[in-house]
Write a structure and sequence with these properties.
The complex is a heterodimer of chains A (148) and B (121). Chain A has 148 residues and is mainly α. Chain A has 6 helices and 2 strands; from the N terminus they run H-H-H-H-E-E-H-H. In chain A, helix 2 crosses helix 5 and helix 4 crosses helix 5.
């Protein structure tokens, strides 16, 4: 018995939490993984910028004077920041909303359809989500910055 | 009745978390519908959109009631989502509690502001 107890046992593998700096850069995500993490990130961005969203709702809708203030923020600037920075913030929100919206519809579709829960559909719909949100962001961004 | 609190609380099993999961989807569907309805009114209005047309969209009573409902839906939807994020990435209970409280304060304040804007129109 004593011989058995004193015997050195092989070291068992340890599984720790992944480290954001040393592990994450080497991880290669499939398209569905990108949609998933971007769904979180886009939601988080909209959460943080929520006061800006409501400020836009407030100034754009309250009166004609505030409407002019709303326009001036993007054309001239506000709080010492130039207009294009406010446009960039709006563009970030546009992307976040588009991605969250399309990825959300993909989620809902997968919740109600058994046929949609497959490896193939998961991949093709993920690529569609990424492509459509970026393409629509570019189109609306070009409009926002006055390219057409 | 079986005790289901304190040390006897059941923390795993069927239906645990189902309510929030379902609420997140129902509120998402409602907000998606609102998005489509709002976009349709913007796209199908004739001429360039100035203050009058934009404010006019939200002055209809049905639109006010719908927007109000969407703000409440958004409040719940974001709460579920943000709590998921804090639960997944923040380990210390103290920081998690602070962030959860911050999330609630942030969301209630934003919702209050939004509703105030909507109803003085």
């Amino acid at each position: 018995m004593t011989e058995l107890a004193s015997k050195q046992r092989p070291k068992r593998p340890e599984f720790r939490n992944i480290n954001a700096l040393s592990d994450l850069p080497s991880y290669r995500l499939p398209p569905a993984g990108w949609v998933s993490i971007l769904h979180r990130i886009s939601g988080f961005i909209m959460f943080l910028l929520m006061p800006f969203i409501i400020w836009m709702f407030d100034t754009s809708i309250s009166s004609e004077i505030s409407f002019e203030k709303f326009k001036a923020a993007f054309n001239i600037g506000m709080l010492g920041l130039p207009g294009f920075l406010w446009k960039l913030a709006a563009l970030a929100l546009i992307w976040a909303y588009l991605h969250h919206f399309i990825a959300g519809l993909r989620h809902l579709w997968m919740d109600v359809s058994h046929a949609a829960v497959s490896k193939e559909f998961g991949k093709s719909s993920a690529i569609f989500t990424l492509a459509a949100s970026i393409a629509l962001t570019l189109v609306l961004g070009a409009k926002l910055f006055g390219l057409y | 009745m079986a005790v289901n609190y304190g040390s006897k609380r059941i923390v795993v099993g069927a239906h645990y978390g189902l309510r929030d999961w379902l609420a997140q989807r129902v509120t998402a569907a409602l907000m998606a519908l609102f998005t489509v309805l709002l976009l349709a009114q913007v796209i199908f209005s004739k001429g360039p959109i100035g203050y009058d047309k934009w404010a006019g969209i939200f002055s209809a009573q049905w639109m006010k009631v719908l927007t109000f409902t969407v703000i409440i839906a958004l409040l719940y939807h974001v709460w579920v989502g943000m709590r998921d994020i804090w639960m997944d990435y923040i380990k210390p209970a103290s920081i998690k509690l602070v962030l959860n409280v911050f999330t609630i304060v942030w969301l209630v304040a934003c919702a209050g502001w939004g509703i105030q804007v909507l109803w003085r129109l």
